[in-house]
Each structure stands twice: as structure tokens, then as C-alpha cells.
């Protein structure tokens, strides 16, 4: 395949020394020229596949810094209860899915959310028993911190009235008889997952391939994967077969820390395709499940402070152990007390100043902790789509107490390094929706009666478009020790880019939702809208008889011209 040359575009490089350009040239997966169209054309066109962007906007490829990618891939073959606001509709969806299963086959699903239901939901084992008495059922809540199961699943996992709560978890029980209700919280969920059989490697690979295509369609060229290491095997297989269309930074669980240390594995190890990020730890649960760890009880509760998944002592020991071995940490912390304890653990470890520790989510922050991020060099790894999505439950459960709520601008104002992610599959990996959420703090839902989307939630925390794009590109590459090889469009870096239908830096922020990802490029290769688009542009340049489209005069995205070119000799 020829190398690539993009001309006559509006290129936002995210390189402060050259913020904008018109053209870029790529050879052997790396950028060899950025600047004016005339300057890049001087490199010579004979060995390049030349594309006239005709003013289209180009930005660096986005890197999603928080995914559970294998979990998302497998969910493509599970019952999806996301965004369903009627409990009866939830039950109907489960019934439809259950009819497809063989007896004793596990019914697995995700996405139910009691916080958005229009009526009270009866999430008990008895309800599921009626729907699927012959199939063990395990249904994750939207935030993945609760698990709704039936009696057969409880029996297979050995969970009864005598089973003690595991450390960092809770088995919900009837207040009178002590029998499990069918709801498990945090680490108690693992008692079930240990019994759920893994899908075949062939099925996992097929679903992962589908998931990668979806990621590319949203402009993603890289991900940070914070889940079990099983996915790494498949990513390596894709790489070997030249089918890997995402660059992957993977993280390990606490159970695998000793193995990583014995192998001498350190943060930053790897290459441009697959790299090791560090150790993933948990401080608490989630706000929607009321398991996020708080300094004060939840609103309308006297004794619920959330769940401390890992004690302060254990968290500190794990961070120190990892740091001594050259391994950075990413600590899940949502509640204000969880964030406080995560920062305590990181600050206690001073063995390796070069490590880039992270706090994941950092949704609720006490005023006393805001400056600690920058002072300790801790990265705030946040998911902006959570802000408009969670606004109602934050107001309901955290109330008006003092502190910061999803404080992206405040973190930047305190000189904290900020990186963006989706928390896939909990929220969408649509990068432009995430940018919109960060910039407007508004819902991506339908317009209201006045033709306006819901008003911004704590608008003082809105970011500018450049700040948001930076967190998805340069900031993200810094978090994986790769800022010298990707994250911006400049000479010597990897040619990871995307073409947008609108200039998101210039349009009204609400129009970002109407912007399309027209093409995604990884290492100079088109992984989104590839062959047809390249064929179209190539023929436009080579065949004078098809250049004169009456509708657009050669606009490379014109449907009429596509039809003409596809039928051209």
C-alpha cells in the first residue's frame, strides 16, 4: 500500500509549537511532514495515496483511558437492559432473551438502573426465578457494582443464609430470616462470576473484533484496558494477524501483582501497539449503587457511608509494593472519602517519582484534597459523560454538602493532569458525546420544550474544546508514558488521526452532538470508512470524466459522486 498524504484540511495538531496545519504526510505508519499544503506537496506525490480533504477538520486519534473492553465485547451477546425506565420492560427483555437459552445455560446481562425507573422495581431472586427457573441468572447493574441473581445462581455459588459477607462486599439479606434477597454488592459479586463459564476463545475473538470496529467508528485509535488480563491474549493474537486496529495499554489486577513483579514487568513496558500501564486497585464502589465511600452518610440515611472495598492499610501496602517494583497504580475512587484514601496511599509511596499514578473517576472530592492531586503528581482519570448522566443521583445522595462534584475545570485550575475515558461498557465510548459532556455539562438527550437541552450542571466546571481534546490525546498519551510517540500530529509521531464532519473548535458546542466521525486512521491505515473512501478520492484525482459532479463539484463525501465512482470503469 502507498503511503498517505492529506491535503487542504483544517488540522488541529495539539502541538503547541504548531497548533494548526493544512496538510500531513505519512510514511511507514509515522508522520513525516506537517504544514501548509504547498510545503507537504514538495515531498512529492508519486509514492503517496493523496487525499484532498477539501477543508475537513482533522484531529489526533482519541485514546479512551478507561475501558473494560472485553466486558463490553462479551456484552454484545448478552441481554442489554441499559436505559430501560420501566421495570416491566426490564422483565420483558429478560423473558425474550431467556427463551433462546438451553436448560442450565447461564443468562447473563447488564445495564439495569434502579435510579431511572419510573416505578419501584422489585429486584429479587423470586422475580427471576419465575422468568428463568432452569437457568442460573446474573445481571449486572449499570455501574457494575451490584449483581441481581436468581436462586439457582445462588445455589451454584454456595450462597445461603449462613454464607458470610466477603471482605469488601455485601450479600443483601431479608431482615427477618436472613436469606439472600438476590442482590450482591461489590466483592460479593465475584462469588457468582467464579461459577459463570467463560465463552469460547473463538466467540470472544469474534466479539472483540466487532467491538474494535465500533471503537474505530467513534474515532478511537487507542484504549487503556482496566480489567482482567484475559483480553491481552486476544489483542496479541490480533496484532500477530495484523488485525489490531486499536493501540492498547493494559492494567493488571491485585491478584496478578506478584507474577508481574517476578517477571520484572514495569509500567511503560511494551511497544507502540501493546503496552503495560500498571496495577488497578479499588478503594470503593459506585454512587448509583450507594456503595461509593463517603465521609458523611448518604442523604436520607443514618448509617450508610458506602463500602470500603479495600482498607486504607491494604491500599497503602499495595501501592508501596507496586511502586518499589516500578509499577504505577490506578485507584478506583468515587466517593470523597475514597478519593482521600487513594491520595493517602499514593502519597505514602515515594520510592519512584517517575511513576504516573492515577485516581480513576474522582467524582466527589473534599475541599481538603483538591490541591493534593497536583502536589503529588497524581493524574485525574475522569469520565465526563458521567457528569450529566449522574447529576440527579449526585443531588439525591450527596445533597448540598461542601465539596466538588465531577470538578474537571477545578482540577485543571489546580494544575492537575487530566485524562478522559468512557468507563465502557457502563457509558458510551462515543468520543464526541464525551467531549460534548465535558464542554457543556448537559445531557445528550432530546431537546426540551424550549428547543434547548437541559441546562448545564455546575457550569463553572465546563471545559473548553481544546482542553477536552487535549485530555483525550496528549493527556492520554502521557498517562501511558507515550507522549513522545503519539497524542499529537507532528513529525516523527504515529499517524493516528480522525476526520470530522464539522470543526468542533468553531461550532456552537451543542452542535458537537451532530458532528460525525468521517474517517479514522491508525498508523496511516484507514480503519473507518477505508476502502470506499480511498477508492473514491483516488478516482476523483485520476479520472477527469467523473470529477464534475453537478451536486458538489467533487466533494469527496457526496453520495451522488460515490454512486458515480462506484459504477465508473
In short:
It is built from 19 helices and 26 strands.
What does it look like?
With 569 residues, the chain is of the alpha/beta class. The chain folds into three domains: 3-65 and 497-567, Urease, subunit C, domain 1; 78-193, Diaminopimelate Epimerase, Chain A, domain 1, CATH 3.10.310; 277-479, Metal-dependent hydrolases (TIM Barrel), CATH 3.20.20.140. Helix content is 30%, strand content 21%. Strand 18 (329-333), helix 11 (336-347) and strand 19 (358-361) form a beta-alpha-beta unit. The chain is globular and about 80 Å long. The protein starts with a strand and ends with a helix. The relative contact order is 0.12.
Q: Can you tag this structure with a few keywords?
A:
Urease, subunit C, domain 1; six-stranded mixed sheet; Diaminopimelate Epimerase, Chain A, domain 1; single chain; 569 residues; TIM Barrel; disordered C terminus; 26 strands; eight-stranded parallel sheet; alpha/beta; 19 helices; globular
**Quaternary class:** single chain
Query: What is the CATH topology descriptor of the largest domain?
Result: TIM Barrel
Shape: globular
- The N- and C-terminal alpha carbons lie at a distance of 21 Å
Q: Provide the gyration radius in Å.
A: 25 Å
Helix content: 25-40%
The tally of beta strands, per DSSP, is 26
Poorly predicted segments: 447-452, 530-569
Annotation field: number of helices: 19
Which superfamily, in CATH terms, is the homologous superfamily of the largest domain? Answer: Metal-dependent hydrolases
Main sheet? 8 strands, parallel
Average pLDDT figure: 90
Strand order of the largest sheet: 8-15-16-17-18-19-21-23
**% residues in beta strands:** 15-25%
CATH architecture group name of the largest domain: Alpha-Beta Barrel
CATH class of the largest domain: Alpha Beta
Number of domains: 3
Amino acid at each position: 500500500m502507498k503511503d498517505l498524504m492529506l491535503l487542504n484540511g483544517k488540522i488541529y495538531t495539539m502541538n503547541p509549537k504548531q497548533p494548526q496545519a493544512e496538510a500531513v504526510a505519512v510514511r511507514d505508519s509515522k508522520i513525516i511532514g506537517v504544514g501548509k499544503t504547498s510545503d507537504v506537496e514538495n515531498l512529492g506525490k508519486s509514492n503517496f495515496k493523496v487525499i484532498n480533504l477539501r477543508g475537513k477538520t482533522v484531529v489526533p486519534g482519541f485514546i479512551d483511558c478507561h475501558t473494560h473492553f472485553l466486558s463490553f465485547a462479551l456484552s454484545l451477546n448478552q441481554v442489554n437492559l441499559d436505559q430501560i425506565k420501566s421495570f416491566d420492560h426490564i422483565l420483558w427483555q429478560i423473558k425474550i432473551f431467556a427463551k433462546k437459552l438451553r436448560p442450565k445455560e447461564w443468562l447473563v446481562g447488564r445495564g439495569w438502573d434502579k435510579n431511572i425507573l419510573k416505578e419501584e422495581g422489585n429486584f429479587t431472586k423470586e422475580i427471576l426465578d419465575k422468568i428463568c427457573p432452569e437457568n442460573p441468572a446474573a445481571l449486572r447493574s449499570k455501574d457494575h457494582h451490584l449483581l441481581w441473581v436468581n436462586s439457582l445462581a445462588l445455589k451454584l455459588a454456595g450462597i445461603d443464609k449462613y454464607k458470610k459477607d466477603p471482605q469488601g462486599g455485601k450479600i443483601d439479606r431479608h431482615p427477618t430470616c436472613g436469606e439472600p434477597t438476590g442482590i450482591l454488592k461489590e466483592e460479593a459479586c465475584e462469588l457468582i462470576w467464579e461459577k459463570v463459564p467463560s465463552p469460547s476463545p473463538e466467540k470472544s475473538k469474534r466479539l472483540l473484533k466487532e467491538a474494535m470496529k465500533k471503537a474505530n467508528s467513534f474515532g478511537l485509535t487507542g484504549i487503556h484496558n482496566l480489567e482482567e488480563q484475559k483480553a491481552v491474549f486476544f489483542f496479541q493474537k490480533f496484532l500477530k494477524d495484523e488485525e489490531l486496529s486499536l493501540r492498547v495499554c493494559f492494567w493488571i489486577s491485585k491478584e496478578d501483582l506478584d507474577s508481574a513483579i517476578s517477571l520484572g514487568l514495569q509500567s511503560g513496558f511494551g511497544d507502540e501497539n501493546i503496552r503495560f500501564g500498571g496495577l488497578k486497585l479499588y478503594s470503593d464502589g459506585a454512587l448509583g449503587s450507594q456503595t461509593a465511600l463517603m465521609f458523611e452518610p448518604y442523604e436520607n440515611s443514618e448509617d450508610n457511608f458506602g463500602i470500603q472495598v479495600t482498607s486504607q492499610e491494604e491500599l497503602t501496602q499495595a501501592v508501596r509494593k507496586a511502586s518499589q517494583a516500578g509499577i504505577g497504580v490506578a485507584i478506583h475512587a468515587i466517593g470523597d472519602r475514597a478519593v482521600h484514601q487513594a491520595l493517602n496511599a499514593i502519597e505514602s509511596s515515594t520510592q519512584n517519582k517517575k511513576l504516573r499514578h492515577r485516581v480513576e473517576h474522582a467524582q466527589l472530592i473534599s475541599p481538603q484534597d483538591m490541591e493534593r492531586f497536583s502536589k503529588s503528581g497524581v493524574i485525574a482519570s475522569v469520565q465526563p459523560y458521567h457528569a450529566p448522566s449522574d447529576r440527579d443521583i449526585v443531588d439525591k445522595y450527596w445533597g448540598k454538602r461542601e465539596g466538588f462534584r465531577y470538578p474537571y475545570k477545578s482540577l485543571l485550575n489546580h494544575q492537575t493532569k487530566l485524562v478522559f475515558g468512557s468507563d465502557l461498557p457502563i457509558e458510551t465510548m462515543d468520543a464526541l458525546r464525551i467531549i460534548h459532556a465535558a464542554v457543556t455539562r448537559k445531557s445528550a438527550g432530546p431537546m426540551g420544550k424550549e428547543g434547548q437541552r437541559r441546562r448545564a450542571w455546575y457550569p463553572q466546571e465546563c471545559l473548553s474544546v481544546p482542553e477536552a481534546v487535549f485530555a483525550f490525546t496528549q493527556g492520554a498519551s502521557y498517562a501511558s508514558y507515550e507522549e513522545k510517540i503519539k497524542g499529537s500530529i507532528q513529525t516523527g509521531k504515529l499517524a493516528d488521526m480522525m476526520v470530522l464532519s464539522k470543526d468542533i473548535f468553531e461550532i456552537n458546542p451543542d452542535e458537537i452532538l451532530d458532528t460525525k466521525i468521517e474517517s479514522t486512521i491508525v498508523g496511516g491505515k484507514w480503519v473507518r470508512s477505508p476502502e470506499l473512501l480511498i477508492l473514491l478520492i483516488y478516482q476523483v484525482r485520476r479520472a477527469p470524466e467523473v470529477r464534475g459532479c453537478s451536486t458538489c463539484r467533487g466533494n469527496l463525501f457526496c453520495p451522488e459522486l460515490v454512486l458515480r465512482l462506484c459504477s465508473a470503469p
